[in-house]
Amino acid sequence: MVSIPFVSRVGPVAAVNPENLPTRGAAVLARSTLAALSGLVFQSGISAMSYPTDVTRDILPKNIHSHNDYWRKVPLFDALSVGCKSVEADVHLIDGELLVGHTRVSLSHPRSLNSLYLDPIMQLLRLQNPTSAYSNANASMTNGVFDMDPSTSLQLIIDYKTEGNALHAAVIDALAEYRSLDLLTHVDMTNASSPTLNVRPLTVVCSGNCPLASVNAQTPIRDVFLDAPLVDIANSSYTRWNSMLASTSYRKMAGWGNSFDVDGEMAAEIKTLVQISRNKGIPSRFWETPGWPGFARDKVWEAMLDLGVDWINADNLKAASEV
Q: Cα 30 from chain centroid?
């Protein structure tokens, strides 16, 4: 975090008896005094106003997924600033590079999975796990990106836009540094009859053209997981050991004619799918929820939460953070 020195614009304050001041005058004096004290703290070189892991201070993590996050003015950081615990990047494998964009025409060399997500997240994790006289220099980076809850794992959903098998292999390779530092949530299947889930600062989930077979082929350590189809979540192929998420399109389930009202049969269907997914230990999400008008968007989000849906899928992050 960059500290900006505070220079007080308030001149020397003459001796004043507060009892002689009106209420407003007393408030002005109090603010002036606080400003002067703050200025003295910074000017004296005392760094008490900041601390080593304060880059995300005061940000409350929330179960909000930043849909098509790469479209934002500042990818990743806009989402983190309101507490999103999940972000999404559409990825294409082009000439050996993992490029981020919705369609091929939107791709450019500077906008890669590394530059927009993997490198910045690594930087954040290093900031949240500083080496100091008070920390163990040999300790692994166990803190996540959120200072208010360091145990929170950030979810990165990678939507595969090109052929899945080759893209999956490239993603596995791209995560090598994270893997070597034990920063990836993973399932250890060394004991096939009793796998163990180990939560780490970053959880990677693949969707789109991601093949289940490629996910299952990661043994004995699996650290890239599937976004399973929620409408087919009862299928025994999808388990908590290969799927960290189950999603479906709300629009396709409801149809636009009924998309603003989550009640009756629609509510019952959603609740059933969510419960099946939850019983398997797999969180649920609905995408393509209404974005406008605002009252309808918020109504659907609130209904989703009431029905037990785990993730709010959001295009408008500010609105989602206030639900």
A: 39
